Amino acid sequence: MGVKKATREVDVVTTGTFSPMCSSGVILNFGHTDPPIRMQKIWLNDVPAHGGLAAVDTYLGATSLSKTMEDYGGAHVIEGLLRGEEVFLRATSSGTDCYPQKEIETYITLEGINEALLFNPRNCYQNYNVAVNTSTRRIHTYMGTLLPKLGNATYCTSGQLSPLLNDPTFRAIGMGTRIFLGGAQGHVVWHGTQHNPTTKIVDGNKIVGGGTISVMGNLKQMSVDFIRAAVFPGYGVTMFVGIGTPIPILDEDMMRFVSVCDSDIYTTISDYSCTHKSKPVLGTVNYAQLRSGSIKIGDKEVPTSPLSSYAKAREIAEKLKKDITQGKFLLQEPAWQLPNKSSNKTSE
Amino acid sequence: MKTKVIFTFPPEIVEKPISHTLMKEFDLWINILRAKIEPSEGGKLVIELQGDEENIKAGIELAEKSGVGVTLLENDVLWDKELCVDCGACISLCPTQALTLDRDTFKLNFDFGRCVACGSCAQVCPVKAISINF
Ligand code: SF4
Ligand code: SF4
């Protein structure tokens, strides 16, 4: 089908991704105790949560680590809440005249608390590099375990299904856009932190940058099918987040954007054995090559691992499509557009 | 016929020539896929037995009689499909390509026939969907 005909016939295209996204967490409001407490130090199943908000509000980050349990963190608490489990809340306070209580120990459930809002400051990287390791020792990173001497390579977006790769100029995805988030309907609330959509040319290939979105939704409506705690050995805890976006086919340009294929999308191969911020780039590769199971780096055949679940990404795009056709999911025009410029600075 | 089994040796029988007996008396072909044996602590062997079905059975019986714990590899490498999110983090770490993503569905395929119970996948699986008793 040509672009013209497709533009006439297709109304909306859906995208999906299910990847580990570290910059994720939940805003919780527990409800007041009697006598009341202004919680200053807060632990949920021994995982520290933020105590710098109002009396019984907190933010629990997905990567926050348990003080007592190995390989357990904020993401596991969130998953536990979603599974209906009781979570042990402990909080302390110095006490004030209006909030005299100094300590509380109790169990909470998702159902029993006032609010649980998933609020992720940076999700859904548009494009991300491929991680390899040229050193002689095994390294443990947020891109998974990397075997020495280019023993394997890991990559982490859903490529042709990735939301921001289908809308590279942010015409459909912007502030307020309704999205599929963790099994519920959520919204894009801002551009993500470190939003950097700058496109570069490397080795003659166009490398789409790293635009990101900040998203929010009601955790109480989400499901463990699309939100899961993850442990990367030697690195720590992170969280798989499932996101899907609808992209209305506004015109032929938009149709061209969403027709993007894995073989058109390139990314760079970075050497994670270098501990500096700018890592040496060993070349470029496209997502079709990555998805084939191995890539060539020099003369070496290097097996690849996605980290991001393509099966789940498809499931999300399909589910969103179904919800839209059944009228359960309504498209929402963005209130304003994501910037096309980088928000990125470094703190050196 | 081929069968993969895990032999667990208590320390007191580490010195017994069990593999030798299996080869000589039962005409079994033995392929050691992985070994972890400390004379003072006992240990484990992942082996592939090849031969007549009856001889394999008899050989396993003999090993058990001599005090070796025998389990089928399938029962010691456990993959929980419900927990698995098909992320593929494990596939590039599997030395034998027992783990692959299906070309059509992109779901994880586990070919137990290729597995040597090395444990790499269990170590890296972010949701602990694979566990290995080795
Ligand atoms: S790493 Fe774990 S969750 Fe991911 S595909 Fe392998 S078994 Fe499944
Ligand atoms: S234990 Fe896992 S990584 Fe090792 S061979 Fe078997 S499937 Fe592959």
List the helices and strands and how they pair.
The complex is a heterodimer of chains A (348) and B (134).
Chain A: H1 3-9, E1 12-14, E2 17-20, E3 25-29, E4 41-44, E5 47-49, E6 57-61, H2 74-82, E7 87-92, E8 103-108, E9 115-123, E10 130-132, E11 139-141, E12 144-146, E13 153-154, E14 174-175, E15 178-181, E16 184-191, E17 200-202, E18 205-207, E19 213-218, E20 227-232, E21 236-244, E22 246-248, H3 252-258, E23 266-271, E24 281-286, H4 287-291, E25 294-297, E26 300-305, H5 310-325, E27 336-337
Parallel strand pairs in A: 10-23, 13-26
Antiparallel strand pairs in A: 1-22, 2-21, 3-6, 3-9, 4-5, 4-7, 7-8, 9-19, 11-12, 14-27, 15-16, 15-21, 16-19, 17-18, 20-21, 23-24, 25-26
Helix pairs in contact in A: 1-3
Chain B: E1 2-9, H1 18-26, E2 29-38, E3 42-50, H2 53-65, E4 69-72, H3 73-76, E5 77-79, E6 99-101, E7 108-110, H4 120-124, E8 130-132
Antiparallel strand pairs in B: 1-3, 1-4, 2-3, 5-8, 6-7
Helix pairs in contact in B: 1-2
The structure holds iron/sulfur cluster (2 copies).
The site of one iron/sulfur cluster (SF4) has 15 residues of chain B, from helix 4.
Describe the structure.
The complex is a heterodimer of chains A (348) and B (134). With 348 residues, chain A is mainly beta. Chain A has 2 domains: 3-22 and 122-335, no CATH class; 31-113, no CATH class. In chain A, 13% of the residues lie in helices and 36% in strands. Chain A has 5 helices and 27 strands. Chain A has helices spanning 3-9, 74-82, 252-258, 287-291, 310-325, and strands at residues 12-14, 17-20, 25-29, 41-44, 47-49, 57-61, 87-92, 103-108, 115-123, 130-132, 139-141, 144-146, 153-154, 174-175, 178-181, 184-191, 200-202, 205-207, 213-218, 227-232, 236-244, 246-248, 266-271, 281-286, 294-297, 300-305, 336-337. In chain A, strands 2, 3, 6, 9, 15, 16, 19, 20 and 21 form a 9-stranded antiparallel beta sheet that branches. In chain A, strands 5-4-7-8 form a 4-stranded antiparallel beta sheet. In chain A, strand 15 and strand 16 form a beta hairpin. In chain A, helix 1 (3-9) packs across helix 3 (252-258). Chain A starts with a helix and ends in an 11-residue tail after the last strand. The model of chain A has no long low-confidence stretch (mean pLDDT 93). Chain B is α+β, with helices and mostly antiparallel strands and 134 residues long. Chain B folds into 2 domains: 2-75, Alpha-Beta Plaits, CATH 3.30.70; 76-132, Alpha-Beta Plaits (2-Layer Sandwich), CATH 3.30.70.20. In chain B, 23% of the residues lie in helices and 32% in strands. Chain B contains 4 helices and 8 strands; from the N terminus they run E-H-E-E-H-E-H-E-E-E-H-E. Chain B has helices at residues 18-26, 53-65, 73-76, 120-124; strands at 2-9, 29-38, 42-50, 69-72, 77-79, 99-101, 108-110, 130-132. In chain B, strands 2-3-1-4 form a 4-stranded antiparallel beta sheet. Chain B has a two-stranded antiparallel ribbon with strand order 5-8. In chain B, strands 6-7 form a two-stranded antiparallel ribbon. In chain B, strand 6 (99-101) and strand 7 (108-110) form a beta hairpin. In chain B, helix 1 runs antiparallel to helix 2 (53-65). Chain B is elongated, with a radius of gyration of 16 Å. Chain B starts with a strand and ends with a strand. The model of chain B has no long low-confidence stretch (mean pLDDT 89). At the A-B interface, strand 13, strand 20, strand 26 and helix 5 of A face loops of B. One iron/sulfur cluster binds at residues 84-90, 108, 125, 127, 129-130 of chain B.
